[in-house]
Amino acid sequence: MARHNVTVTVNGEAHSREVDSRLLLVHLIRDELALTGTHIGCDTTHCGACTVLVDGVPTKSCTVLAVQADGAEIGTVEGLADANGMSALQEGFMQEHGLQCGFCTPGMLMTGTALLAANANPSEAEIREAISGNLCRCTGYVNIVKAVEYAAAKMAGADAAGAEEDN
Amino acid sequence: MAPRTSAKICGMGHSMKRKEDPRFLQGKGNYIDDFTLPGMLWLDIVRSPIAYGKIVNIDTTKALEIDGVLAVLTGKDLEAYNLHWMPTLMSDTQMVLPTDTVMYQAQEVAGVIATSRYAAADGVAAVEVEYEPMTPVIDPFQALDDDAPVLRTDKEGQEDNRIWHWEAGDKEATDRIFDEADVVVREKMHVPRIHVASIETCGCLADFNPVEGHLTVYMTTQAPHAIRTVLALVAGHVGLSEEKIRVVSPDIGGGFGGKVPVYPGYVIAIAASVVLGKPVKWIEDRMENLQADSFARDYHMDAEVAADSSGKIRALRIKTLADHGYADAQAAPSKFPAGLFSICTGSYDMENAYAEVDAVYTNKPPGGVAYRCSFRVTEAVHCLERIVDTLAHKVGKDPATLREENFIPKEAFPYHSPLGWEYDSGDYQAAMDKAKEMIGYDDLRREQAEKRARGELMGIGVCSFTEVLGAGPSKDFDILGIKMFDSAEVRVHPTGKAIARFGTKSQGQGHETTYAQIIAEELGLPAAHVQVEEGDTDTAPYGLGTYASRSTPTAGAAGAMAARKIRDKAAKIAAHLLEVSEEDLDWEPGTFSVKGAPDKSVSIQDCAFAAYTNLPEGLEPGMEATNYYDPPNLTFPFGTYICVVDIDRGTGEVSVRRFVAVDDCGNIINPMIVQGQIHGGLTQGLGPALYEEMTYDEDGNNLAGSFMDYLVPTAVETPAWETGHTVTPSPHHPLGAKGVGSRPRWGRRRRSRMRWWTRSRTWG
Amino acid sequence: MIPPQFDYHAPGSLEEALALLGELDDAKVMSGGQSLLPMLKLRLATPANIVDIGRIPGLDSITESGGFLRIGALVTETALEENATVAERYPILLDTAKVIADPLVRNRATICGNVAHGDPANDHPATMLALRAQMVATGPDGERTIGVDDFFHGLFMTSLDPGEILTEIRIPAPGERSGGAYLKLERKVGDYAVAGVAVQLELDKNGKVTQAGIGLTNLGFAPIRASAAEKALTGATLLEQGGLMGAIAKVRGIFSGGMDADEVIAAAAQAAADATDPVADRRGSVRYKRNMARVLTARAIRQALSRAGG
Question: pLDDT tens digits for B617-636?
Fold first, then answer.
């Protein structure tokens, strides 16, 4: 069976691998690139534990072939924090107790990150709809919603502060 | 209750942010599938497509031709080592791999060992198994028929499909009350078979070192110590004695009771590692997880309440049939085959009660786990609260009022229930009042009446539960003979930092934070300076693990007691440093000072340093203590939940408008974490109330074997939970805590009624 | 859950894709892959070859031209949801897209894939029936246009030849007074429909229905056109009319042996229910599903009317 050369840029770092046609993107990320923050929780594209960003778009990486991602920019949970520390959304999850076992959390964070990039001030209903492809069994979602709201408020505050500085 | 310690120390009552969060938030957790060892092989499992039948032949030829497939293990292979059977935690038996018969759909039939995840899956698809199907027994009532085939022919003396009969209470006295009572109501109900569906499935990495004869198993278990003991019992005869087994439970992606049992997959992986001398990893997929792993509930209950004409409850009578599937694979205390179901008299004072449960075998997966629940308490609460509602309708009283009129008054504690429990404390009216106030109960009832007059459907549900947690006192509670104490070991280092190890295992409950806060409360060390470890049988003290909301009542108490031992020693050192006698010392969290001279003081950190550098004569060096805590009683948390739903008259769709949950779990260690536990329990109650059910067709085919049909609620279906609490401390727990984490208090009543409505009346 | 072995091909042009389909044995076309990949993982599909059309340029546009809304093969549900023309002029499409799976799946899933999959549980087929869409299939001999009524043949069966690709869906541009709606009853977000109903209505200036389209989801082995229901609506005046005009309409209805608007809608809804052939499963009994078809049809008609500017 055919093998394919695949190059993906994950969290800013380029990786090339020769892969089977059938290798799933989530296995490329976890098994080949050893980025185990992205999880697997089902077989039928329901749980969203495997959510990553593919060219900025939140995607269930268990339902994409690695070859389909050739040339793509991939964002995973490992890339959310930077030298300044955790992202506003990660901080929100910690402050609002938006996680318990932590297994769905990376997927929730990637979906939430994309939501906030597209909609800086989402309503509760918009947040709930956006994360409806990510299942959480521990939290009952209340605090995940609050975590996204926390991040939105913090980012708005930072933007306002930044705008004031620019003035 | 205001915290006794400063925000810096962060003892009980502080909503400390969780110490485990930074690693989970940055993808640095260590879950089972994140582990890799050099030379690691993969196990994938061939499973039975039928519910009951003979295995005629297993042909592995094509599988072994696949590149990367190394071996296929069958029951016959394991039989050579006498490893094809294993005990359950309820002293029943179950197959690891069958030698001749399959007993339920998705049962393990063979294990394929390969060099990769992908090759192992190809191997599974290529193993050819020929079955001779037999007619399965699916309905538990039919399992009791005289002509039902006996399923467990492997068990000597087993002449029917009954597993056990359990009963509690005075049958005759109860019957007498029923004979003379003004009012009797009866309702049959089924708490359906459901599944924990933790987002992480089960798995393990078995690493047998053939040179040292030592086995390390990294596995998704809530009870690592007990599992090690079971493995030693199962495999002792092949040289795996307990000191040569190390079980490590890493970060767990949700347990909820489903990661207590020993599943065949673990044992097959271990056997494969022993046979091949290489590390073998097994990670089940979601369909295997839902179809083969332990279920919860599945109690068919026939309940009756006897009352006087005003609705004063006089007696309760419940007859239950428990469908355990192919084996009784609960993890309940051994003297309590029906768990703590006898809490079924709940929050109400009554003259007498009688409850009985018969357990039967069927051709379904084995189980009966305590899912987000102290053993069978959810079933008991569901049964009682539904029949009490029925009584309220019968006597024409508001369901809240009827409950209030039957509450055990707060002056009556400690209260002896008719089925033998000594409730330690309670104030049920306070919780009811708070819930009613939070939700605006009277206004809602008015709105409901108006809506019903207009033909609109709106439902209000009330539930006032009493639970029993914290198993348990060793005189009554054991699993496989091992008493249900739990343990803590606390060591303070010379610089005043500490490590604390426990016999339990967190699966998201935040033990690394709450246990640190308990130590902080007792020792006055900042919780930030207390590192908590669990889950490694080589380093943690022996304990029975985390399930049934037992961790805070048992291991949490052990932590407090161990810390108190250290504080006692620190007092001796402080007296030495301050050159006074111990009796002349005052203690504020973190500081010993001389009575009457508060500026003469030493800190707990000073004492720790002195424990290694400057000891009073005759005192043993070091600052370390261990406690095995055997609780004197269980704890009896309680609460009132009120729910409002709107129902679409055309389609029957139910939407939850509001849900108020008032809980009393005694003194609270971390309010933020407790609230999070309650949110989770509520959502896991919402699931089976409206969405989740594991059903089978008459051939034993699982009809909800993936997330396509096992409907875990999303953020859209889940309401914004509103929580409140009252505090009635446990009089016997060292911290006054009662435990939390078991709150799936949702009835199906509304749904069954809704279905009836939609099917028979409200078209269009 | 691991897919079986197959060969993967990513043609850079439509011509190359069609050539591959001609050459390869047992090849399956993949666009977003959100239906195909789960089937592969469950090993319900085991094609020897997959031809991924996802990298072919020019297939991802939504345009309105020549009297049609044209949806290219690679237009995702998310792109449809975010399209201003769709939101303004084709709200039924927005209704449909929004209830498919979940937002993450919709980021990759395509409308053409949803239709070409031939699954009666998918949502777009009913909507395409209601809209009287045309399917543009491109094969080795060029394009052919297939009317939606000739497209669906049964469970996972369509008129597409193995060598063809569904390259475009053409939806007739709506008339001045028209409106549509898609309603779906689902057990929870992301589920397949218990029942789904798509209704598209064209009205004349007096509010009379000149054309009605009604499609049904997951109520039979193929997407269903509720022809009798459409007929019941066609020619009827359903808009609420107050005052004298309303009274005249009512009287005229009575004299013509006809029915008032509520009765017409009820009759159409019953006709839609009668057109179904559901199976009992965990989503409900046959009787429940039929009744849901009726309830949802009535509601969708009213919503379509309201959107038609009634």
Answer: 999 999 999 999 999 999 99
